[in-house]
Every structure is written in C-alpha cells, then in structure tokens.
Design goal:
43% of the residues lie in helices and 16% in strands. The chain has a 6-stranded parallel beta sheet with strand order 2-1-3-4-5-11, with helices on both faces. The chain has a 4-stranded parallel beta sheet with strand order 7-6-8-9, with helices on both faces. It has a two-stranded antiparallel sheet with strand order 10-12.
Length: 335
Amino acid sequence: MNIYDVSKKAGVSTATVSRVINGSGKVSEETRRRILAIMDEVSYTPSTFARKLGSSSTMTIGIMCVDSSDPFFARAVNLIDGALKENNYETLMHCTGYELANKQKSVKRLLASRVDAIIMVGSSYVESEENAVYIKEAAKELPVMMVNGVLRYPNVYNIASDDKDAAYQITARFIESGRRNLIYLYDSANYSGIKKLSGFALALEQAGIEPKEDRMILVGKVSRPVENAKARLMELKGMEIDGIVTANDLLAAGALKFAKEIGVSVPEQMFISGFDNSNIACCCDPELTSIDNKLEPICATSVATLLGVLEGRDMPKTTLFSSAIIERGTTRLKP
C-alpha cells in the first residue's frame, strides 16, 4: 500500500494525504480523520516522498519538448511559460529531441534540480508502455503534466485535443464536398499521429472508400518538412489526387507547393488542409484551411490543472478539447 492507494481510497489527492501526514496546510477535520482511519486500517507507513509532498517548494517547473523549432511546440512552450510566470513560477526548459535516452536524461536532470513538477509538451512522449516507464517512475516523485498526450498513470495529468475526431471531421467534409481520391500526409507515428491517421481512415471507411497504404504517406521527422513533403508527393505524380489531408501546417504548405509544381489549381481541382492553425496557415497563397486544436485553452488549462494539483486540490486526470475547422482558401467545403 502506498500514498496513491491511500489517496484513491480516501477520494483525495496525494498532496492532501501528505498534508495530513505532515500536519501542514488546510485540510478539513472530517477529511483528516478519514485519511488517518484509512492509514490505520491498511497499516500504511509514510515514505520519505510522502512526507516531502506539499512541503518545500522551489517554485520552479520543468518544461520538456522534443523540438523547439516546431511552430506548435514553440507556441505551446511560450504560452505555458508565460502562464507559469504570471503565477510566480520559474521554468527550466529542456529540448530533448526524439531519442528515448535523451528524454530519460532530461527527466533525471529535472528531478535533480528539485523542480515542483514536469510538463511534457507534445505526444511524442506518449509512446509504448515500455518506453513510458521513466515517466511513470518520475510521477512517483512529483506531478507530471502531459500536454496533447494521454498516459493513465498515478500522478500523471493529461490535457489533449481530440485529434482523431478532428481528422475524421475534416476528411468527412472533403468527401461530402465531392473529393474521394484523398492522400493523408503525416510525419510522426506518435500518440497524436496515430489518432489523426485513425480518424482519416475511419472517415474513408464510413464513406465506403477503402483506406490504402499507398495513400497514407509517412514523411518522417526531417529538418526541412515543407520541402520533404513536396518531394514525397512528387513521387506520387500521375496518381489521381483531388484532396490532401495533412497532420500539420508545414506538411500542408509542402502539399501546396506540390500542387503548384504539377500545375493543379487549389481549391478548384484539389483541396488541401493543415493542422494546428499556426501562423504558417496565413502565410501561404492561398491561405490554408486548418484545424484549430485549441492550443491556447489547452495550455491555459494545463497550467491551471497543475497549479491546482500543487495546491492540493482534486483535479481532473484527463481533459479533452474538441477542435474546429478554420476554412480558408485551400478548400471549398459544403456546409
């Protein structure tokens, strides 16, 4: 029996259990008695970590992202950092890259720096159960916040966009608008990437269109995503294509370059959509239709949830946001 089991049985947060153990903070007499009774019932002996929870704070939060040059990650980190500083928290930033060993190393360094919590930005941290063990272990020492990913571990909190539904909705709108020869372009098979891909495939299946592997193109994480997206699509030159759904706006910009290269008019002959509703969408000509995945409220909710956890309040473990299609010049979607 550990502190998480006690908190679950009592229906309170781990921080609340810790305050009862340490005799600190505001806890109602009824709650205190219930927790003490449960601890006595299960013969729970508080660990060093349990005693430390909720006591000393460095007022510092660790932030991890895989690629600070990516528009989505850069904007998310900026929003989170600003919100934390408004609440008098400092931040330690680690740009980890995609290698598992580097992610694990960053977590160890943040733990050694005695941060109060860790925020992991992006679904690239949500891999297999085996590759996420280091996150599960870190959460035994402090709260971990996943931004746009979901891990159902004790002391891990998740805020994410419903990427599967978003990809499904835009693909269904393409089909309803008469586009049936579709390509899906993505650059990662992480949590978000798989959700988007499954949404695309589901929309095809429900429309009676067989999802084909040669029409679901994995570009891979590369240093020049726009040029590489265009290059991969050029390999499909001659294939009948009237719509390209992509996993982010950089890939969509590459798809737009491809259409211009082969002399196909957008949106008259081909629809193109992006994802993330970044500034890139408005820099293209024509401007990109894109998915607004509600990054600002996601980041604000992430910080608010984490601060609630650190204050000992019971907070939701997982929150999902619905996305919206922002139509611009690369599509003519039927209402």
